[in-house]
């Protein structure tokens, strides 16, 4: 079987479909999987174990045999817990073949082969009967099928089916119930992930304000969940307008309905403000009494004793369809609509004349019609709304633009062409290379230009850089070439170096005295100790007394599947870390010249100047726009005493996890980490190697 994997090519800015061997998919999935994170989630594991023990006891007290159905067994962990707790037999269902194979090995290694039958099927394919996968229906249903949104991984249809076909009526369920909580908040920061705020530009002839067209203003945005580590959101970045409210709950021990429905609660704002965002999280009760609870509540809600870091379950940010001014004490209804896999929210003012105004209850799932939410993802909205950043670009543009400038901007969904026009460039064109094949943003831009009286002022060239013709430029040469640079196909920070390739492709169209903005870029690197992120790539050994090393080995194999280990993108504002070395510039890229034929390599060493565990290196790009004006997509600030880092909140940084994480504690004199970094100009990829 052949697998085709989509991969952005940083030298062309476009997606390419590469043929991979059949192992590829699964190695990717295992290497980047959440299994390690789940196995490190002590709070989760302990509570599942308690809940499973209690359920087995209840069944035994009734004098019944305990027959367990574990849907999505993964490593087999929950089935092994059940078997240890005295269950008579467990059916462990796992759809993902490599995991089902691993579960068989792990179950065997832990001596449970006679009690646990691993079935490599989707639960809806499982059969019951004398010749079936299961001899009889189970009376204990154990699952862990939840994502941050609770239902996004298909828990509801899976439960619905299991109650119909796989478990007995009145079965015990672990978890017993899940409850979803919400809190209404006002937050300019989070709202800036959905809306484009007006952009103010101080031009020669007065202030210009770029406003989004009404289609964008009124668009409900995207249905996809926005899940974040809400515990990293400082309380100064939002203001709570309501108490925490129970939105809905699901009892897993009874038949579950997955069909679309809605839930409604009454709210009274605790203060007046602008309702913009619904923050949401859930908890699961492992037993009917509610004594064993695992909660995702954020820091301002839960007791510190319940703090457990995890990345496989976080919190959700929902954007209301529109901002709604609310008054303290007024009566509001918050409605949660859901389908089988996702949830969305709307807010209604209670009317005096009717108890429930059902007409506007069931709003359809948010669909972006304005196209801006397809062009810009949430972090990108945040970046475009970052006024400090915009100011840097304005300052730099002002330095380089002249009234006779012929300007070409190469970046996806960029506002730079508008800024260049406002700042007086005579002719402005733009290219959005990696958006060409995916989606034609023409209509959106026309709406933008119309809303700002910019029709015919900025020309969108719908060609790739290598196909640029003099006629696209009205037979003029480009005197100012600009880019943020930003491309939607970029996964790792250096993929935006596609700007350099595009610049090379349009070389013949550049005036001899062309100004390129940014004129150069640099790659920076720093060794860090993560507060928590290390868990996702760290071996587990034993989990609640069960040997899961098979899983560790499997992850290690998958990580080593590619010849050189790869860096992975993470938004580090969500993952606190401490710098152990000074940040170091490791490579520079000169955009005033074309991409060279030969690779750019560097070798060196960094001194570990602070005590700590070296979990890995963080790498990011900085763009040098003009003399003294640079923007960083990584480190923004470093507090020197403690080494706490502040990261660009709109960008993902590259994280390279060292393979010997545990051994890297630095106790005495400055140790050095040596590195070798190579930018392959043919592929646009950066390979690296570190030695501790
Ligand atoms: N139970 C394990 C793993 C949980 S991860 C633990 O708690 O540590 C969830 C697993 O369920 C994944 O491995 C996924 O492949 C599997 N899965 C999800 N839905 C499933 C279904 N309907 N049938 C079978 N497996 C499923």
TrEMBL record:
Gene field: Prmt7
Molecular function GO labels: histone methyltransferase activity; protein-arginine omega-N monomethyltransferase activity
Protein name per UniProt: Protein arginine N-methyltransferase 7
Record keywords, A-Z: Chromatin regulator, Cytoplasm, Differentiation, Methyltransferase, Nucleus, Repeat, S-adenosyl-L-methionine, Transcription, Transcription regulation, Transferase
Catalytic class of the enzyme: transferase
Gene3D superfamilies documented for this protein: Hnrnp arginine n-methyltransferase1 (2.70.160.11), Vaccinia Virus protein VP39 (3.40.50.150)
PROSITE patterns: SAM_MT_PRMT
A Pfam match: PRMT_C
Domain Protein arginine N-methyltransferase: 176-347, 519-681
């Amino acid at each position: 079987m052949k697998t085709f994997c989509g991969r952005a090519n940083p030298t062309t800015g476009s997606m390419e479909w590469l043929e991979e061997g059949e192992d590829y998919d699964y190695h990717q999935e295992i290497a980047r999987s959440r299994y390690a994170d789940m196995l490190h989630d002590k709070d989760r594991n302990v509570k599942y174990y308690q809940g499973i023990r209690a359920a087995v006891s209840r069944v035994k007290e009734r004098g019944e045999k305990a027959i367990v159905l574990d849907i999505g067994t993964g490593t087999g962990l929950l089935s092994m817990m059940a078997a240890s707790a005295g269950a008579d037999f467990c059916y462990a269902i796992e759809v993902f073949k490599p995991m089902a194979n691993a579960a068989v090995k792990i179950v065997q290694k832990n001596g449970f082969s006679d009690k646990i039958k691993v079935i490599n099927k989707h639960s809806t394919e499982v059969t019951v009967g004398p010749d079936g996968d299961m001899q009889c229906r189970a009376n204990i249903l154990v699952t862990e099928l939840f994502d941050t949104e609770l239902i996004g991984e298909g828990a509801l249809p899976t439960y619905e089916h299991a109650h119909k076909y796989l478990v007995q009526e009145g079965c015990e369920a672990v978890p017993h119930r899940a409850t979803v909580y919400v809190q209404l908040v006002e937050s300019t920061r989070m709202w800036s992930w959905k809306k484009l705020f007006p952009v103010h530009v101080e031009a020669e002839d007065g202030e210009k304000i770029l406003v989004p067209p009404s289609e964008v203003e009124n668009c409900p945005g995207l249905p996809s969940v926005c899940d974040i580590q809400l515990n990293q959101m400082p309380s100064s970045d939002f203001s709570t307008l309501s108490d925490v409210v129970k939105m809905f709950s699901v009892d897993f021990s009874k038949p579950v309905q997955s069909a679309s429905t809605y839930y409604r609660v009454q709210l009274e704002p605790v203060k007046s403000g602008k309702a913009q965002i619904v923050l949401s999280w859930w908890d699961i009760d492992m037993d009917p009494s509610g004594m064993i609870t695992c909660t995702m509540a954020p820091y301002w809600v839960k007791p510190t004793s319940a703090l457990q870091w995890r990345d496989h379950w976080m919190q959700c940010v929902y954007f209301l369809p529109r901002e709604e001014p609310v008054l303290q004490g007024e009566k509001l209804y918050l409605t949660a609509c859901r389908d089988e896999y996702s949830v969305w929210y709307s807010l209604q003012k209670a009317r005096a004349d009717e108890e429930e105004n059902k007409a506007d209850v069931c709003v359809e799932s948010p669909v972006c019609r304005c196209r801006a939410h397809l062009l810009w993802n949430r972090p990108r909205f945040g970046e475009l709304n970052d006024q400090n950043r915009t100011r840097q670009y304005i300052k730099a543009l002002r330095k380089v633009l002249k009234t006779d400038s012929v300007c070409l901007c190469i970046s996806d969904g960029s506002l730079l062409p508008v800024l260049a026009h406002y700042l007086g460039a005579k002719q402005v064109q733009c290219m959005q290379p990696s958006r060409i094949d995916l989606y034609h943003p023409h209509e959106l831009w026309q709406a933008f230009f119309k809303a700002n009286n910019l029709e015919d002022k900025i020309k969108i060239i719908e060609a790739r850089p290598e196909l640029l013709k003099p006629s696209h430029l009205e037979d003029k040469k480009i005197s100012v070439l600009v880019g943020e640079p930003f491309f939607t196909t970029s996964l790792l920070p250096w993929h935006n170096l596609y700007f350099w390739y595009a610049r090379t492709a349009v070389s013949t169209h550049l005036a001899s005295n062309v100004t390129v903005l940014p004129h150069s870029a640099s790659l920076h690197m720093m060794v860090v100790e993560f507060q928590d992120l290390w868990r996702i790539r760290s071996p587990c050994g034993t989990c609640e007394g069960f040997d899961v090393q098979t899983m560790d080995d499997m992850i290690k194999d998958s990580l080593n599947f590619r010849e050189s280990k790869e860096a992975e993108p993470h938004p580090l504002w969500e993952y606190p870390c401490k710098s152990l070395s000074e940040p170091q510039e490791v490579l520079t890229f000169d955009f005033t010249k074309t991409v060279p034929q030969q690779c750019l390599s560097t070798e060196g060493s960094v001194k570990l100047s602070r005590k700590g565990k070296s979990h890995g290196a963080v790498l990011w790009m900085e763009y040098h726009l003009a003399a003294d004006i640079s923007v960083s997509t990584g480190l923004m600030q470093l507090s020197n005493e403690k080494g706490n880092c502040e990261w660009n909140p709109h960008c993902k940084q590259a994280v390279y996890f060292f393979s010997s994480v545990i051994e890297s504690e630095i106790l005495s004199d400055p140790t050095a980490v040596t590195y070798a970094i190579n930018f392959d100009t043919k592929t646009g990829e950066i390979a690296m190697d570190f030695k501790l």
